[in-house]
Amino acid sequence: MTEIKKGKYFFGTVKIGERGQIVIPKEAREVFEIKPGDNLLLVGDVEKGIAIVKADLMKDLAIKILDNMNNVQDIIESEK
Predict the structure, then answer these.
(1) From 38's CA, which of 23, 24, 57, 67 has a CA 20 to 30 Å away?
(2) Domain tally for the chain?
(3) What is the pTM of this model?
(4) Which residues span the domain enclosing 2?
(5) Cα 23 to Cα 15, 17, 28, 66, 76, distances in angstroms
(6) What CATH code is carried by the domain that includes residue 11?
(7) Looking at the structure, do residues 54 and 65 belong to the same domain, yes or no?
(8) Are residues 67 and 57 part of one domain?
């Protein structure tokens, strides 16, 4: 594991197994507190590549976005 700059890491490479599986390096699991049973979200961009994010972090982000949407709606309604 190499810390490129504060909070940014390079964990090395992984191989795709015969069944299309990868092993997340131990150091990465420790840094991001990934434990057996955790759900991960796999997202991708054809030009930029693939990213893996803990699903609970995305759930928290989605809740914040939805909460803010309600605030925006309240502001719009109050201006009418």
Answers:
(1) 67
(2) 2
(3) 0.67
(4) 1-38
(5) 8, 9, 10, 34, 48
(6) 2.10.260
(7) yes
(8) yes
